[in-house]
C-alpha cells in the first residue's frame, strides 16, 4: 500500500524521505553490528536492487565477507563427519530402571551393595555410575533413605506377624441374629471363619481360638500379634490361648473401628458380595455359605492389595493363556470363577 502511494507524491517529498531513511540507516549501523535478515528480507532487497543504478547495485547483493563465509560453510558441509563418541557407552534404560528399583526397594543398600547385586544378576556397572544415576533420579544416599521410614513401609514389613479377629452378625429370614467369628492373616489377606452361633460366649470363643492352629497349619507359629476389639466375649481364657503360642493380644482403643480396619473391611466385603444378596435360613445355612465364600475369597478372588492375586495364588507362577475358558459357579451362581479348561493347549503369543 505504501508503494501505491509513492507515485502520487512530489519528487521533493520522495527525496526528503530518502534522506531521512539514509540517516536512520546510518544511525542503526552505528548501534547494530550485523543485522540478521530472513529470506523474505533478502528477496525484497534483491527485487528493489534491480532498479538501482549500476554503481549502487554492484554492492547491494553480496559483500566479499559474505561470499567467503558461504565458501567456508560449503567446505564444512563437505568434510562434515559424525561426532566421535568418547568414553563408555551409555547404560540402557532397563539397567537404569533396575538401579532405581533396587534403590527404592532397599533403603539400606549403598552404591557398592547395589553394584554387587547387579554383578550377581549379570550386569557390570561401576559404583560411580550408580551414584550418578541415583543423584539424577533424586534418590538420597543409604543413610538418609534409612532414616526416612514411613508408617506405610513399617506396617507392610510387620504385616506378616499380625492377625486380626472380629465378629460379624447376620439376620435370618425369621429375624434371628447369628454371629460368625473369623480371623484374618493381614499379610496374605487369608480369612478363616471359625464358627457360627446364635449365642456366643467366652468359652465358645476360647475353644475356637484353640482350633485356629489346625486351620493355619505350618503358619500358626509365625504370628506375634493379634488385634481384637474390647468385646466382652474376648475373655482372659481367649488371651491365654494365644499367649501360649507366643502371640501377644492387642486390644483396640474404645470405639475405634479403624484400628481394626482389615477385619472391618472383610466384613464389608462379605456383606456386599454374599450375605446381603442371600436369604439366610439358619445356622447350618450360614455356616455353609460362609465356608464356600471363604474358599472363594482365599483362592478365587483377585485382591487389589495383593496386586490382583488371590491369597492362595503363587505370585512367581505366570499362567499361560488358554484357548477355552471354564466358568465355575459359586453359591449357586451368585459369584463366578474362571480358569483355563483342562487339556487345552496355550495360545501362541
TrEMBL record:
<dbReference type="Pfam" id="PF13276">
    <property type="entry name" value="HTH_21"/>
</dbReference>
<dbReference type="InterPro" id="IPR012337">
    <property type="entry name" value="RNaseH-like_sf"/>
</dbReference>
<dbReference type="InterPro" id="IPR025948">
    <property type="entry name" value="HTH-like_dom"/>
</dbReference>
<dbReference type="InterPro" id="IPR001584">
    <property type="entry name" value="Integrase_cat-core"/>
</dbReference>
<feature type="domain" description="Integrase catalytic">
    <location>
        <begin position="139"/>
        <end position="319"/>
    </location>
</feature>
<comment type="function">
    <text>Involved in the transposition of the insertion sequence.</text>
</comment>
<protein>
    <recommendedName>
        <fullName>Integrase catalytic domain-containing protein</fullName>
    </recommendedName>
</protein>
<dbReference type="Pfam" id="PF13683">
    <property type="entry name" value="rve_3"/>
</dbReference>
<dbReference type="InterPro" id="IPR050900">
    <property type="entry name" value="Transposase_IS3/IS150/IS904"/>
</dbReference>
<dbReference type="InterPro" id="IPR036397">
    <property type="entry name" value="RNaseH_sf"/>
</dbReference>
Amino acid at each position: 500500500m505504501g508503494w501505491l502511494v509513492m507515485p502520487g507524491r512530489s519528487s521533493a517529498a520522495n527525496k526528503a524521505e530518502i534522506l531521512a531513511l539514509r540517516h536512520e540507516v546510518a544511525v542503526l549501523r552505528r548501534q547494530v553490528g550485523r543485522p540478521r535478515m530472513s529470506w523474505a528480507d533478502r528477496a525484497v532487497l534483491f527485487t528493489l536492487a534491480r532498479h538501482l543504478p549500476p554503481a549502487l547495485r554492484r554492492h547491494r547483493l553480496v559483500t566479499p565477507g559474505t561470499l567467503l563465509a558461504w565458501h567456508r560453510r560449503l567446505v564444512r558441509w563437505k568434510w562434515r563427519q559424525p561426532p566421535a563418541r568418547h568414553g563408555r557407552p551409555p547404560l540402557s534404560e532397563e539397567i537404569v530402571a533396575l538401579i532405581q528399583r533396587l534403590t527404592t526397594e532397599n533403603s539400606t543398600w549403598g552404591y557398592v551393595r547395589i553394584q554387587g547385586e547387579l554383578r550377581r544378576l549379570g550386569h557390570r556397572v561401576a559404583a560411580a555410575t550408580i551414584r550418578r544415576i541415583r543423584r539424577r533420579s533424586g534418590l538420597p544416599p543409604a543413610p538418609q533413605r534409612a532414616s526416612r521410614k514411613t508408617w506405610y513401609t513399617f506396617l507392610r514389613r510387620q504385616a506378616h506377624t499380625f492377625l486380626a479377629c472380629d465378629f460379624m452378625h447376620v439376620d435370618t429370614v425369621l429375624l434371628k441374629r447369628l454371629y460368625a467369628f473369623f480371623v484374618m492373616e493381614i499379610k496374605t489377606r487369608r480369612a478363616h471363619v471359625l464358627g457360627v452361633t446364635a449365642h456366643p460366649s467366652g468359652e465358645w470363643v476360647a475353644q475356637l481360638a484353640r482350633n485356629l492352629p489346625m486351620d493355619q497349619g505350618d503358619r500358626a507359629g509365625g504370628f506375634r500379634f493379634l488385634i481384637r476389639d474390647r468385646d466382652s466375649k474376648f475373655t482372659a481364657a481367649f488371651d491365654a490361648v494365644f499367649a501360649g503360642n507366643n502371640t501377644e493380644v492387642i486390644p483396640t482403643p474404645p470405639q475405634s473401628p479403624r484400628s481394626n480396619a482389615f477385619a472391618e473391611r472383610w466384613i464389608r466385603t462379605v456383606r456386599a458380595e454374599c450375605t446381603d444378596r442371600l436369604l439366610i435360613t439358619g445356622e447350618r445355612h450360614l455356616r455353609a455359605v460362609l465356608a464356600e465364600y471363604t474358599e472363594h475369597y482365599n483362592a478365587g478372588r483377585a485382591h487389589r492389595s495383593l496386586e490382583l492375586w488371590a491369597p492362595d495364588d503363587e505370585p512367581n507362577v505366570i499362567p499361560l493363556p488358554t484357548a477355552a475358558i471354564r466358568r465355575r459357579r459359586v453359591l449357586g451362581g451368585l459369584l463366578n470363577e474362571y480358569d483355563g479348561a483342562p487339556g487345552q493347549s496355550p495360545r501362541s503369543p
